[in-house]
Design brief:
The chain is of the alpha+beta class. Helix content is 39%, strand content 13%. Helix 1 (11-26) runs antiparallel to helix 2, helix 1 (11-26) packs across helix 4 and helix 24 crosses helix 26 (783-791).
Amino acid sequence: MFARRLLSRSLLICCVAAAFAVQQAMAVDFQSDIFPILESHCIRCHGPELQEGKLRLDTLSIDLINDRSATENWHEVLNVLDAGEMPPEGEPRLDAGQHERLTAWLSTSLKEALHLQRRTDGRVVIRRLNRAEYQYTMQDLIGLDMDYVRDIPPDAVSSDGFLNDGRSLQMSPLQLECYLATARVAFNHVIVTGDKPNAYDHTFTECKIDTWLGNAERSNRLGRQQEFLAKIVNDYPDAGEFLVRVKFSAEIKPNIGFPLLEVSVGYQPDTEILLDNFDVVEVTTSGTQTLEFRGRLEGFPLPVRGQGKYPGLVVRVRNVYNDQSPLPAEQKDSAGKTIYPDEPHLPTLTIQSVEFQGNSYEQWPPATHRQILFEATDGEPESDAYVIEVLKRFMTRAFRRNVDDSEVERLLGFYQSIRPDFPTFVEAIRETLAMVLIQPEFLYRIEPSSVDKRQVTDIELASRLSYFLWSTMPDEHLMELASAGKLHEPGNLIQEVNRMLADRRSQRLVEQFTDQWLGLNMIDNVAVSRDRFPRFDDKLKQEMCGETRAFVGELLRENLSVMNLIQSDFTMLNEPLARHYGINDVFGRGFQRVPLGVTSHRGGLLAQASVLLVNSTGSDSHPVRRAVWIRDRLLNDPPAPPPPNVPSLDDKDPKFHELSVREQMEIHRAQESCDRCHRNIDPWGIALECFDAVGNWRTEVPRKVFDEVRMFAVETTSKLPDGHEMVGIEGLQSYLLNERKHEFATSIVARLLTYAMGRKLELTDQEVVNEITAQFASNDYELKSLIHLIVASEPFQGK
């Protein structure tokens, strides 16, 4: 990437910059005039024996026309020179004349190199659909809601943190087999055979079950410790679509959250319970109401008929709202059954009926079948003409473009070759359609390559838009506009982007980009210490990520400034997370905009528990991880990776554990090898020491001193290498907004453009990034405006 990457902040950069500029401009002899300078100042740390920052100087290419990687490095040289970061402390400083000469010559050389590189730029990066894109595309293409990625291997993460980078999305023979198996399963569900199956319909108005694990009370009235159980012993289907319809009334209580309706389906084989849950529904209105939950039995745990100690399919309904107050002790009624005292302060649900319907199809074959195998116009559903029409319609949707006759004929030939091997037409056409879904034209986003740059077609632009904003294939409206050749028209394009952002599917952009950009998808890898945080519930991790996603979503919906990501007078909270933060009067599971007072510390990403926990040890804060995250994710200026065999903090001093983190790290930096990196890292993280591992505010920190735990005051004062002193999160936020606003704006432009393009940005993209950033600033850094700018940009449209 053109942004600062991996180069050591050392005198090396100055030496290399000088060598390159002088060689290019004055035809000096590199070996006699330049290399001795490098050898005396740089090779020791960047040569055969040691390569700080993963840079080896004695083999570094200076062919900037053909070596794009070298061009990226030279551009980094110019960046650090312009930023005044070179040379580092302790090394001889360049005088003004030397600095001016180096930057002028380097700028000229890079400009010429970039001019020549652009003549061959514009090639398309072929991208495989990643797991999320594949899941959503299969759902929209086939019309069946199932888990399509269960057996698909995880996607590789690019160096930028994204999961949609074309160069990272590899394909293996095993993975291709997984795609084929998944397509076969999907078509077995969608394209049906035989007569309409028997329908099943059971209604329960009270619990019907004899034996069930757990201590919950069986009841129609659901608080925290009750559940409604319905059991069907034999009369249920083994596959196919089913529906659970719950009729209930809700009792809403003031100044507390709403009841949460959870429906589960499964069984009890013996000494365990196997259930899968539908998404929990928050019930925000009182009175009688009915909700429906639909699924396929193949996706739920099913008992094996004739086996097991407790046969039968079970539907469980619960109210899973919990205010974390102490649970009342269980009691026994006159019959010896477990009951619990009423909790009048909590919201409840009263179940009136639970209905189970299986194979309840209004039409047969169902609509998903008829969408693919439509009625033959000539009355011959097995003729080659019919197969051609089926394939053409389906391939056009699957390939997201018009298909050639030759492409259809190739798949027709496959169908004809396998037809004798299958007993029925339906089975043969299923296999043929499954083959469509392992073609590169479906699994990859393919655009015709070109030696010269060209504008993408309207059809190609439709796919770029839909996968950027929705992570799925274009819908019918978008394809109609593209097929008419009207999508590129500026007015239409703006209107279409606004339509797509207003669609609920744009939440995928918010979630995918936010999680990958900020590294939130790593939160489950952090094990929270039960010793330090005994009451922490791992479910809270998703609430933490929900705050950040909801916050970014609010900026997008309201077209607010992204500077709110640094400092804001509001955040997005739900009841569980507000309780974790100690913020009162926030009720409900849904995230809502909560204004913050002037004394609050919760405004902006740096105060959100998702970011703080991801960059912690799970037991305590980790100032280095938090510092690296700030420089990498917010400023696009990641420090060089640590060298091997980094020494640990020196705790030989008996009073070491009584020191603040800042003082401990100062001891660590006393070692020269550590100081070179940490003086540019530590101050950023120390400013966030006011937050513990799980994002709670603190003024004291516990430390184990020999055999006892003692409390020490938190130290949040730090000084950056440029001499700027920061005190706590407020000082850090102020510094970012006042001194590093442009770097942050450029960073988010680069990150969002990287995500939109599905490729790593190169130095040739820098001019576009600069142009977008300038327009972004003139639009007050509004997030929705940035999306419009990226869609209209030269890289996105391939101009």
